[in-house]
Amino acid sequence: MPAQEATIYWDKLVYDAWELHLAATDKGLVFIGSQGAPLAEAEAWANRRMPGSVLVRDAERLAPYARELTEYFRGERDSFELPSDLRGTPFQQAVWSALREIPYGRTTSYSDIAGAIGKPAAVRAVGSAIGANPVLVHVPCHRVVGKNGALTGFRGGLAMKERLLELEREETSG
C-alpha cells in the first residue's frame, strides 16, 4: 500500500539571532531545523521521513510553536506543551522520550540515556537515535554530552548546541 500523502505546514522562525524552520502536521510538530539552515534541510527530511508529503507555508498554523520557542529563547519557558508528531522506530521513540526527561539546564551522557531505556550496551544506537531527532530543542538532545562532559555531535552544529546549553545555564543560575 503506498504511503498516504500528508500536508506538512512550515514557517521560518526569526527571533533575535535565531533563525529556524519549523514544520508541523495536523497532529503536531514534526521538524525544527538547524540554526540558519535553508528550507532545503526541512525538504530533505520530509522526503526521507514522509515521502509523498506536500510542504505548505502557513505562518498562522505554526505561530503557536513559534511562540513557545520564542518564549524558550527569552528564558520564559523551560518545557514545551504543544504536541509533536514524531516519526521514528520504537527504539528512537524510547530514546526521544528519555531525552524529554532531562531537566532544563542539566546535561547527561549517551550511556546514561542507554541505561534509562534499559539498553546499557546500546550507546552507539542511542547516539544514532539522538542524531535522528527531528525536533531540536523541543526534544532536548542538546542536553546530551560525552561521558567526560565534552560537547559531541549535534545536527544543528556544535555552535548551536553550545548556545542552547549556555542559554539554559544563564536561566538556571540567574
UniProtKB/TrEMBL annotation:
Keyword set includes Transferase: yes
Enzyme class: transferase
GO terms under biological process: DNA alkylation repair; methylation
Keywords for the protein's UniProt record, in alphabetical order: Cytoplasm, DNA damage, DNA repair, Methyltransferase, Transferase
Signal peptide, first to last residue: none
GO molecular function annotation: methylated-DNA-[protein]-cysteine S-methyltransferase activity
Domain Methylated-DNA-[protein]-cysteine S-methyltransferase DNA binding: 90-169
PROSITE patterns assigned to the protein according to its UniProt record, in alphabetical order: MGMT (PS00374)
Pfam families: DNA_binding_1 (PF01035), Methyltransf_1N (PF02870)
Catalytic activity: a 4-O-methyl-thymidine in DNA + L-cysteinyl-[protein] = a thymidine in DNA + S-methyl-L-cysteinyl-[protein]; a 6-O-methyl-2'-deoxyguanosine in DNA + L-cysteinyl-[protein] = S-methyl-L-cysteinyl-[protein] + a 2'-deoxyguanosine in DNA
Protein localization: Cytoplasm
Function of the protein: Involved in the cellular defense against the biological effects of O6-methylguanine (O6-MeG) and O4-methylthymine (O4-MeT) in DNA. Repairs the methylated nucleobase in DNA by stoichiometrically transferring the methyl group to a cysteine residue in the enzyme. This is a suicide reaction: the enzyme is irreversibly inactivated.
Family per similarity comment: Belongs to the MGMT family.
Protein name: Methylated-DNA--protein-cysteine methyltransferase
Organism: Cohnella zeiphila
